[in-house]
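By way of example, we now present a protein record of this kind:
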Amino acid sequence: MRRLAPALTLGAAALVAVSGCGAQGTTSLGNVKLAAAEAVQQSAQRAGEVTSYSADLVVDATGGQKGTSKIQGSMLYQSRPQLATDVRLDTIVHDGQNVPGGARAILTGDTVYVKSELLNKFAGANKPWIKVSLTDLDAKGQAGVKAFTAQAQQFDLAGTVKLLTASKDVKAVGTETVGGVETTHYSGTFPVAEAAQVIDPARRERLQEQLSRVKNVKFDLWSDAQSLPRKVTLSGSEQGVTFNMAASFRGFNEPVEITAPPAGQVGDMPEHPGGN
């Protein structure tokens, strides 16, 4: 599978967990006034306590020589009784060219199911879905599945909001209604260099590679009265290409339905992808 445009990867890579400190502005939570930085920290803590949610996602990139790139889709997530996610990428535009059929990934337990016309064509698969064990993703021939899975796994509520806690200039900018819910709007930037130092070591190298030319990423957070993040946007530039990411979250701790595709539609990754 061809890699997504660098700026799209950049936007997706921004959805990773980091921690740090912030600084300015105050807001009210019940009868308690919180500095903006403390409010973002509290939102990150509440996000980490969420066991299920739904999300709508958009990442786009403009500029450069190859045209517009875009990913648009949705996600279901649950951590109990076992970790499961269902990511649908309905629109994938790469260097101005539409990727037919989009893509979908379902993770249940230690198994990932991927549906992608482009990946199936590359792999020579004979079923709509390809099934791969997470323990096999480093095996020869699994690179396409691993790349897509890595993209999908980074659309993450807790990781997204933890990323914002690295900001030193966050401030409250007002109240707004998001998805019918009243929220406080926070805005700021986070320094990529500092984020790389506190990120999970397993993801640090990937972050440093994909954000190596970005000094600061701008963000906006809309947090409700329970400190739950209702919306997050990220933006930045790399080599003249500008990326923007928006994620809207809802259905916190509500039941979600995530099931494996029908067995008759699932095949294993061919032993020799592409017929080689």
Notes: The chain has a mean pLDDT of 77.
